[in-house]
Write a structure and sequence with these properties.
Helix content is 33%, strand content 16%. It contains 13 helices and 13 strands. β9 (228-234) and β10 form a beta hairpin. α6 runs antiparallel to α7 and α7 (199-218) packs parallel to α13. The termini are far apart.
Length: 361
C-alpha cells in the first residue's frame, strides 16, 4: 500500500540512506541560469565503498556526496530519476525508470521529454509504465512517492539540503557529488550506474561515448588546435559578456570535442574556479584569442544589435563570423550533454562548429 509523504517523513530515520554532517560544497544554483554542468571526476574523487551481502550476492554500496553519503543495501529495481539528464543513464543501459523528470529546456511542440529520451523510452516499451514528473517549478514529491521507488538518482542536480532530506524520506537518494549543477556527463553516468548496481556497464558506456567523440572529431582536422568558448550575451545589456567555463557542462563539452579554452578565459577561470565568468565590454580586446564563439540563438534583429555594438561587436569571432548561434530546441539542450544526447546530436553539433572553424584563418 502506498504511503503518504507524512508517514514516510515520520519514519525517515529508518531509511538506509543517511547524510553525515557535512556542509554542502555550494547551495543549489538557479536551474534557469545553470541548466545542467561538472565536478571533480568520480574516478578522482572518493570511490564508492562496497560490502558483500551474502544472502543476495549484491554488494552493498556507499556513495559519498555533497550531503554525506547514501547506502544502498540491495539492488534497486524501481528507479526514479530526477533533474537534468539523469534518466538517460538507466535508459541507455536498457532500464526503464518508474518515474523521470520532464525536460525544462529544449523541448518542442509542448512535449515533456527531449527527443533522445522519448525515443529510447519508446524503444524499451516504457512509455506506459514510466511516469513523467511535472517538476519544472519544484519537485512533485507526491508523484515521486506514488512511484514507490527503491532509489532516486540525481547525480546531476541542484538539490538543496532540505530537498535531499525530503527525497531521502521517500527512498535512498543520490545527489550531486561536489557542487550543484557541476557534475560532468561522465560522472553522471558513473555515479548513477553505480547506484543502480550497473557499475561495469556504466564504465563501458563512458568508454563507448569517449570513442564516439574521438571518431567523430577525427573526421574534421580543421577543428584541431582551435580555441572555443560558450558565451552568454544579451542584446538588452551589452555592458558585459559572460562565458561558461569547463566546470559547466557546456564549456566542458567543447573541451570534449577537442577545443582548448582560450588563455584569456583560462587565467580568469583558474583564479575563480567558477562555472561562469563575466567580462566588462570595456575589456573585450582581451578576447581576441577566441577562435570560435558559441552562444544560444538570437533573433536576426538581436544578432544585428550585438554585431553592431561598438564594443562587443569588435570581438574577432563576431567580426569574421566564426560564431554559431545554437538554435532553440533539442540542439541547445544537447550542449549540456547526457548519455543519450551525445550520440543523438553530435553530428549536427560538430557540423555547425566546422562551419565556424572554416572561417578561422
Amino acid at each position: 500500500m502506498r504511503k503518504s509523504i507524512a508517514i514516510i517523513l515520520a519514519l525517515s530515520f529508518m531509511l538506509v540512506s543517511c547524510a553525515k554532517a557535512a556542509d554542502p560544497a555550494v547551495s543549489a544554483v538557479d536551474a534557469a541560469a545553470q541548466a545542467p554542468a561538472q565536478a571533480p571526476t568520480q574516478s578522482e574523487a572518493q570511490a564508492p565503498e562496497t560490502a558483500e551481502t551474502a544472502d543476495t550476492g549484491f554488494a552493498s554500496i556507499t556513495i559519498p556526496h555533497a550531503y554525506g553519503e547514501t547506502v544502498i543495501e540491495s539492488k534497486p529495481e524501481r528507479i526514479a530519476a530526477i533533474a537534468w539528464g539523469n534518466a538517460d543513464v538507466p535508459l541507455a543501459l536498457g532500464i526503464v525508470p518508474v518515474g523521470i523528470s520532464e525536460a525544462n529546456w529544449g523541448v518542442i511542440d509542448g512535449g515533456q521529454l527531449l527527443p533522445w529520451t522519448k525515443e529510447k523510452l519508446e524503444e524499451l516499451g516504457g512509455t506506459s509504465s514510466c511516469d513523467v514528473f511535472d517538476d519544472t517549478d519544484g519537485w512533485d514529491y507526491e508523484a515521486i512517492n506514488e512511484c514507490e521507488p527503491d532509489i532516486i538518482i540525481a547525480a546531476s542536480s541542484g538539490l538543496s539540503q532540505e530537498e535531499y532530506d525530503t527525497l531521502s524520506a521517500i527512498a535512498p537518494t543520490i545527489p550531486y557529488p561536489g557542487k550543484a549543477w557541476q557534475t560532468s556527463w561522465r560522472d553522471q553516468i558513473l555515479i548513477n550506474s553505480k547506484a543502480i548496481g550497473m557499475e561495469e556497464e556504466g564504465k563501458q558506456l563512458v568508454e563507448d561515448l569517449n570513442s564516439l567523440i574521438a571518431d567523430k572529431t577525427a573526421e574534421y582536422p580543421q577543428l584541431a588546435g582551435k580555441t572555443a568558448a560558450f558565451a552568454y550575451v544579451s542584446p538588452a545589456d551589452l555592458s558585459t559578456i559572460s562565458f561558461y567555463t569547463p566546470t559547466d557542462t557546456r564549456g566542458g563539452f567543447l573541451e570534449d570535442l577537442g577545443f582548448a579554452l582560450p588563455e584569456s578565459l583560462s587565467s580568469l577561470y583558474k583564479e575563480s574556479g567558477d562555472f561562469f565568468i563575466t567580462i566588462s565590454a570595456e575589456n573585450v580586446d582581451m578576447l581576441d584569442d577566441i577562435d570560435i564563439l558559441v552562444s544560444y540563438a538570437l533573433t536576426d534583429d538581436a544578432i544585428e544589435v550585438v554585431l553592431s555594438d561598438p564594443l562587443i561587436g569588435t570581438i574577432p569571432a563576431f567580426v569574421r563570423g566564426s560564431f554559431i548561434m545554437v538554435p532553440e530546441g533539442p540542439l541547445s539542450a544537447a550542449g549540456s550533454p547526457s548519455a543519450l544526447s551525445i550520440p543523438w546530436a553530435i553530428d549536427e553539433y560538430i557540423a555547425r562548429l566546422v562551419e565556424a572553424a572554416d572561417k578561422v584563418k
